[in-house]
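Write out the bound-state structure for 2-acetamido-2-deoxy-beta-D-glucopyranose.
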Amino acid sequence: MRQSHQLPLVGLLLYSLIPSQLCKICEVHKENYSCLNPLISTMINSKHTRGIQDANVLLSFRLVGIQKQDVEQQLIQHIKDKVARKGSDLTSGQLALIILALGECQNPDKKFIDDYHLVSQLEKKFQEEIENMGAHNGNPLTNYYQLSLDVLALCLFNGSYSIPKVAELFDPENKNYYFGGQFSVDTGAMAVLALTCLEKNVTNGQIKIDSKDLECIDNHIKSLVKKILSEKKENGLIGNIFSTGEAMQALFVSSNYYNESEWDCQQTLDTVLKEISHGTFSIPTAAAQIFPALIGKTYLDVNKDSPCSNNFNISTCESVTPTDSPSNISVHYSVKINETYSTNVTVLNGSFFLDVMTEAQKINETIFSFTMVETSWGPYITSVQGLSANSSKRTYWQLLSEGKPLSQGAGSYLVHDGENLEVRWSKY
Ligand code: B12
Ligand SMILES: *[C@@H]1O[C@H](CO)[C@@H](O)[C@H](O)[C@H]1NC(C)=O
Ligand SMILES: *[C@@H]1O[C@H](CO)[C@@H](O)[C@H](O)[C@H]1NC(C)=O
Ligand SMILES: *[C@@H]1O[C@H](CO)[C@@H](O)[C@H](O)[C@H]1NC(C)=O
Ligand SMILES: *[C@@H]1O[C@H](CO)[C@@H](O)[C@H](O)[C@H]1NC(C)=O
Ligand SMILES: *[C@@H]1O[C@H](CO)[C@@H](O)[C@H](O)[C@H]1NC(C)=O
Ligand SMILES: *[C@@H]1O[C@H](CO)[C@@H](O)[C@H](O)[C@H]1NC(C)=O
Ligand SMILES: *[C@@H]1O[C@H](CO)[C@@H](O)[C@H](O)[C@H]1NC(C)=O
Ligand SMILES: *[C@@H]1O[C@H](CO)[C@@H](O)[C@H](O)[C@H]1NC(C)=O
Ligand SMILES: *[C@@H]1O[C@H](CO)[C@@H](O)[C@H](O)[C@H]1NC(C)=O
Ligand SMILES: *[C@@H]1O[C@H](CO)[C@@H](O)[C@H](O)[C@H]1NC(C)=O
Ligand SMILES: *[C@@H]1O[C@H](CO)[C@@H](O)[C@H](O)[C@H]1NC(C)=O
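---
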């Protein structure tokens, strides 16, 4: 009789001490690992020219246990070069990703983190984000996705930061979780990972914090998880296909905040596998962001002291390039600021949005001029007609087709004959 009283108590204790062991995680079964080959090929064939893509890929390689010496060495060299060359130009989230990637599992590159004082550099950059919020109407230098990466890396790598400030900033009602009124699942998911890292350190007794802050953080996680789940679609995707991997990670580490009936993990997994076979994750960063969740890993598993694992035998796959006989297509292209400027553009079938913009620029250099920067997702449009996006003002150039925002960028969205394309000056 007494035992039946004590069991739940013991259970509760275990529950709070080792929450990670009770996570329900659905994952791709080992016998089906070949379904993941397209992701591996995409990451291996990455061209190492795009912003912070290398850190995304390296982090994924190490976290899921893909050992491919030559590729890994190349990634590491690029990352180190980038830090040495433009360390202070890196954004806070870029630096955080680099720390996570270089610091994951026992490897000789960890020394680099100390040699270049990357953690204290990150502390400084995180502080600058907060200062920008103070000076510019609550807008960080970058965004909350990156602030979450910052907190996560500082938490995992013993950086210092103000916990009450984090508790205050990451309030789920903060506008920075939203773009154009829409909850950003990627952002919310990254915040859940960061806040859960904090909470775990408290439960493990590694750090002590005010119980008011702990309760606050706990409530934030609870309500963010609710918002993430409310973005679940009928086919199981959460947000869109590109946010689903990070949403899965967030749900893995927060399973005591929702009921089993609220999320069919297997359904989500099946839909993602279908999308992999359709070639949806053709960008290395997209492949890198979805991969960990598919084998039950999360960014909270980044551990500087665990041995590096090897779970995959790489069979080198060749990418097939479709060779269609070239034909021309015609699309309608508009730039919308207050006025709308339009033109018809002819491009080869199989062209991307960016090709249309380039052709339009040839037609009229004044009204269709634009600039872009390479990022981990490909070219990001920074200005059109000389008008520049600015995070401190929450302005950007939105890409649309038939009046609907695209879920891909200018460098990867394939245009169709007769399509109406638009770049629109917008606030988020
Ligand atoms: C914040 C954010 C934005 C902000 C960026 C400005 C800011 N304040 O930082 C805003 C709201 C303006 C934005 C715009 C867009 N975004 Co966005 N964005 C993100 C988010 C949440 C975080 C990016 C980040 O900071 N990464 C971390 C840092 C360390 O990496 P980084 O490479 O240095 O980050 C820069 C780039 O990612 C760039 N960026 C942001 N979005 C996009 C999208 C594309 C296609 C490109 C090339 C670059 C880019 O801005 C970051 C800061 O400078 C990601 C989510 C994710 N999972 O990555 C989505 C995400 C990257 N965005 C996405 C999309 C589709 C867009 C838009 C194309 C939407 C549209 N229809 O207009 C536009 C970009 C149009 C353009 N001008 O080229 C998709 C990309 C999917 C894909 N397969 O390409 C993502 C994955 C969201 C999603 N789940 O759909 N975005
Ligand atoms: C492997 O995938 C197939 C089809 O995609 C599925 O029917 C099967 O159940 C999977 N195996 C396991 C062990 O999950
Ligand atoms: C991180 O901090 C904890 C507690 O302060 C300490 O025990 C641990 O040794 C530190 N780890 C590293 C790698 O500095
Ligand atoms: C917090 O936890 C992480 C992972 O469990 C650990 O690496 C880190 O050192 C901890 N931080 C502190 C300050 O103890
Ligand atoms: C789970 O469901 C039960 C009853 O169905 C409810 O009482 C409880 O609050 C739910 N828990 C969460 C975390 O939503
Ligand atoms: C990789 O291949 C070797 C030899 O074929 C095999 O012994 C090993 O089990 C494989 N490892 C994995 C993770 O599949
Ligand atoms: C496509 O159009 C361009 C000029 O608009 C022309 O030079 C080219 O021959 C056309 N190509 C095809 C395959 O029709
Ligand atoms: C658009 O029009 C509004 C109202 O006339 C004006 O305040 C704003 O500056 C214009 N925006 C641009 C980018 O020209
Ligand atoms: C573009 O083509 C469509 C028909 O294909 C035509 O109605 C429209 O007037 C053209 N627009 C411009 C700006 O030339
Ligand atoms: C463009 O190419 C796709 C497949 O590559 C084909 O289905 C489509 O009919 C082509 N369109 C035109 C107008 O040639
Ligand atoms: C470009 O467009 C502007 C505004 O419509 C016009 O004044 C200018 O003459 C055009 N330039 C060319 C080269 O067509
Ligand atoms: C962005 O806007 C802020 C606030 O108006 C301004 O201080 C800053 O210089 C602008 N940044 C760029 C790159 O134009």
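---
The CA atoms of residues 131 and 140 lie 8 Å apart.
Residues 328-427 form a domain with the Ferric Hydroxamate Uptake Protein; Chain A, domain 1 fold (CATH 2.170.130.30).
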